[in-house]
Specification:
Elements (H helix, E strand, L loop, with lengths): L6 E2 L5 E5 L2 H4 L6 H8 L16 H14 L4 E5 L2 H4 L8 H16 L3 E7 L5 H5 L8 H16 L5 E6 L1 H10 L10 H28 L5 E8 L2 E3 L4 H15 L1 H8 L1 E2 L7 E2 L10 E5 L3 E5 L9 E4 L15 H15 L3 E5 L10 H17 L4 E6 L19 E3 L6 E3 L1 H12 L1 E2 L22
Parallel strand pairs: 2-3, 2-14, 3-4, 4-5, 5-6, 6-10, 7-11, 10-13, 13-14
Antiparallel strand pairs: 1-17, 8-9, 11-12, 15-16
Helix pairs in contact: 7-9, 8-9, 12-13, 13-14
The structure holds 1-deoxynojirimycin.
1-deoxynojirimycin (NOJ) binds next to loops.
Length: 449
């Protein structure tokens, strides 16, 4: 195998990390915290996000640490439940906090990329049906407008919803996440609800930003997880394409057409939906190898396992940098939008895989540019080891370790590897291809966040 040569990253390409409020901030009250209280044991080892990594209080030091590593962008989420603790009541001190976070990013030379919804909901909205509430689009737009007003011209890059397809699958079809529904019909209604929420928020963001003279760049963070049928299995090929289209394409096609497409709708026009995407945020972790499974009715008779030919991370997910390049190129060919890698990362207990993973995936993202994709940047998931949803603190995705007893931050060797790339603008020849080691035993499983 010929060794890859050092590769120069284009000027202006954004490099940094991504995070989400619930996973890092601590001190929150939302539907996930209520699940923790009401259903102890749902999260592995009884872990709690009550303190998380205390980023709400330590954000200045945390951001300074990332900036010192040469990062030029920072994706974070605003917690809706904090900003609007009661319907219609906006907490100005919470908004001021996020204004400070944005200002800190800017002072430190990092472009803020702001997510408005990253899986969690205020309990008052969850109680009215969450994303199924017919009022959710209007309420989400009002909250989006409040954020856009508060940030003024300081924020250009927005993500309305993080991974609506994952929330649809895990919250409404498989029932593992709040609101724990297991109904294909409800999953489709949830998808349509989130589509309308996105359209309403995008409209609000475009309108408010225009008044501040800084045109908003709006997207969702789309989780792409191509379903690849086990080779030669006709049954797998037959059953794979429906979930593949539903999971990987339905939302984006609906945005492109401006309509709620079947099977979640019958083509109803959604005001503001067409043209709501100014770029495409891509969260890419792995492809999924799928086969027919008559027991997996909630997953449309598809179950998945990692490709035995590929290395795996510590959660058992396949590692295949070529998959990122394929995803970028196919999304670019199909939607003709600029792309930003809003997440890509690896669960890696001892930081053995991350350096190679990072260099290989970053290289894949830059190489996709040569294939014609307009890739604007790469945001690694994530800066600091944090609360990985039902996995708790066991899954380590961070460049920086966080001691669970003292919350002390310790950069890992991979953080320095990424910092070198950020500082020099050059992706070096990898010393080891990513994921030489095969990780933990395969976990049959759905996409997790
Ligand atoms: C995507 C999700 O947006 C994020 O919250 C999660 O931690 C990572 N995937 C890793 O699973």
């Amino acid at each position: 195998m010929a060794l890859a040569r050092p590769l120069r990253i284009p000027k202006g390409f954004l490099l940094g990390t991504a995070s989400a409020a619930h996973q890092v901030e601590g001190g929150l009250w939302n539907d996930w915290m209520r699940m923790e209280r009401d259903e102890p044991g749902r999260v592995k080892n009884g872990d709690s996000a009550a303190v998380a990594i205390d980023h709400f209080r330590r954000y200045r030091e945390d951001l300074a640490l990332l900036a010192a590593m040469g990062h030029t962008a920072q994706r974070f989420s605003v917690e809706w439940a904090r900003v609007e603790p009661e319907p219609g009541h906006f907490d100005l001190s919470a908004l001021r906090h996020y204004v400070d976070v944005v200002a800190a990013c800017r002072e430190l030379g990092m472009e803020p990329v702001v997510t408005l919804h990253h899986f969690t909901l205020p309990v008052w909205l969850a109680d009215r049906g969450g994303v199924l509430d017919p009022e959710a689009p209007r309420l989400f737009a009002r909250y989006a407008a409040a954020c856009a007003e508060a940030f003024g011209e300081e924020v250009r890059w927005w993500v309305t919803l993080n991974e609506p397809n994952v929330l649809m699958a895990l919250g409404y079809a498989e029932g593992e996440w709040p609101p724990h529904r297991r109904s294909p019909a409800l999953a489709l209604r949830a998808a349509a609800g989130m589509l309308r929420m996105h359209a309403a928020a995008a409209t609000a963001l475009h309108q408010v930003s225009a008044t501040h003279g800084r045109p908003a760049m709006v997207s969702i963070a789309h989780h792409e997880r191509p379903f690849r049928p086990v080779p030669r299995s006709i049954a797998a090929r037959c059953v794979a394409w429906v979930p593949d289209l539903l999971f990987n394409r339905w939302f984006l096609w609906s945005c492109a057409r401006g309509r709620v497409l079947p099977p979640a709708g019958s083509g109803q026009v959604v005001p503001g939906l067409r043209g709501s995407l100014d770029y495409l945020g891509l969260n890419y972790y792995a492809d999924e190898r799928v086969r027919f499974d008559w027991r997996a009715s909630s997953r449309l008779f598809v179950s998945s396992d990692p490709d035995p030919a590929l290395p795996r991370n510590s959660l058992g997910w396949s590692i295949d940098p070529a998959g990122l390049r394929r995803a970028l190129v196919s999304l670019s060919d199909e939607f003709r939008l600029p792309l930003l890698v809003t997440e890509n990362g690896v669960a890696d207990e001892d930081d053995e895989l991350r350096s190679g993973f990072l260099l290989d995936h970053l290289r894949a993202a830059v190489e996709a540019i040569a294939d014609g994709a307009d890739v604007l940047g790469y945001l690694h998931w994530t800066g600091f080891d944090n609360f990985e949803w039902l996995e708790g603190y066991g899954a380590k995705f961070g460049l920086v370790a966080v001691d669970r007893a003292t919350l002390e931050r310790r950069p890992k060797p991979s953080a320095e590897v990424f910092a070198d790339v950020c500082r020099t603008g050059v992706i070096p020849t990898p010393r080891h291809p990513s994921g030489m080691r095969v990780g933990a035993a395969p976990r049959a499983g759905p996409p997790t966040g």
